[in-house]
Design goal:
There is one protein chain. The protein is of the alpha/beta class. Helices cover 38% and strands 19% of the residues. Helix 1 runs parallel beside helix 7. It is globular, with a radius of gyration of 19 Å.
């Protein structure tokens, strides 16, 4: 049997899809994870999602659908986490190519279903951005989730919408989402993270990292992203909820508008019109700033005092944990230094590693 899971926002949603499959469906069934190649600038210095033309070595999986195998490579300077995920995890990763908007994604989805005849089709979003109205002041990245929701709405497929870790992306809080969320279908536990442990060591996803940490019992307030958004880690954080797809579509103004789009540029223009911004514009601006940035030196002598200052300030904000992505940017380091920073900190202060997060010590420690 084959299960098809659509990772609504790409990035860490694909990693969460792997954990969901191993936990709910079991390793004896084949899983195909349909996902964007849309990573943070720490991984991919080019703004926006990568399409099929940005890779070499893709393999056909169905008409209009390409598989990202372990041997596929993004064409430099582009980057992608998908080939490494394909190398480490026993799943088939299919590429969402958004170049033709929601209409093109819908065709890819129908093509996969026609060829694979999956037992089920799940649309998975970590955090809950897929349920955004579009006018929330804290909303930062609605385009990818809304495009996949719009694409699903164009089909007659029986798609089940799942939201894991409500509130964990730091944009919509659990309190804002709880009235829309349906029943809990699963609550992740520590043992459920074993299937993705190897990838959690290097994958930069903050939301899925917090989902795994919450499943392991971590509670508190985690500070994420370059903006230092505070995210509560509570007993609700490791839950997975089913949500009525039609109800989500009625709520998501941007997704309804995107349903007829035939180009990514058209979708981006609608995001600017409805939400007042496009996250790809934000990535373009940030990419320009990063080009001008002179990263700090990374060694224990210079990094640890800066870390101590950051931790003291974070502690004053009530923060108990943070991500290595947040630390990398807070310490003025280049994205390529993230893994080296992680190794340095874990080797020097292993007691603060609350995998895959970094614990901010209490002032009394």
């Amino acid at each position: 049997m084959t299960r098809l899971i659509v990772a609504a926002g790409g990035g860490g949603d694909a990693l969460a899809a792997a954990m969901l499959h191993a936990t709910i469906y079991g390793d004896d069934e084949r899983a195909v994870i349909l996902t964007y190649a849309w990573d943070r600038l720490l991984i991919d210095p080019l703004p926006g999602p990568r399409g099929a033309d940005d890779f070499v070595g893709l393999e056909p999986l169905a008409p209009a659908v390409q598989m990202v195998s372990a041997t596929a490579r993004p064409i430099p300077p582009a980057g992608s986490t998908l080939p490494r995920l394909a190398a480490e995890l026993p799943y088939t990763f299919a590429l969402i190519d958004p170049v033709r908007g929601a209409e093109g994604i819908a065709r890819q989805l129908v093509s996969l279903v026609d060829d694979l005849r999956p037992t089920s089709v799940d649309l998975l979003d970590v955090g809950g951005d897929v349920l955004a109205r579009g006018d929330e002041p804290t909303l930062k990245s609605p385009l990818a989730d809304s495009l996949t929701l719009a694409a699903c709405s164009r089909t007659t497929l029986p798609v089940r919408l799942l939201v894991a870790g409500p509130g964990l992306d730091g944009e919509l809080s659990y309190e804002e989402l709880r009235g829309v969320l349906g029943p809990v279908v699963h609550t992740f536990a520590a043992t459920d993270t074993a299937s993705i442990d190897s990838a959690l060591h290097w994958h930069p996803s903050e939301a899925t990292g917090m989902l795994a940490a919450a499943a392991r019992g971590v509670r508190g307030t985690c500070e994420i992203r370059d903006a230092g958004l505070p995210v509560p880690l509570t007993d609700a954080s490791p839950t997975v909820h089913e949500v009525d797809l039609d109800k989500a579509l009625r709520r998501n103004t941007l997704a309804r508008a995107l349903a007829s789009t035939t180009a990514l540029a058209e979708a981006e223009a609608l995001s600017r019109e409805i939400c007042g911004f496009s996250e790809i514009d934000y990535e373009r601006d940030k990419a320009l700033r990063l080009k001008e940035q002179r990263p700090a030196k990374l060694d224990a002598e210079s990094a640890l005092p800066r870390l101590a200052q950051f931790e003291a300030e974070a502690r004053g904000r009530g923060v108990t944990h943070t991500t290595f992505r947040r630390l990398t940017e807070a310490l003025n380091l280049d994205g390529s230094q993230r893994d080296d920073l992680r190794r340095l900190l874990i080797s020097s202060r292993p007691e603060q590693f609350a995998a895959p997060l970094w614990r901010i010590p209490a002032s009394t420690e």
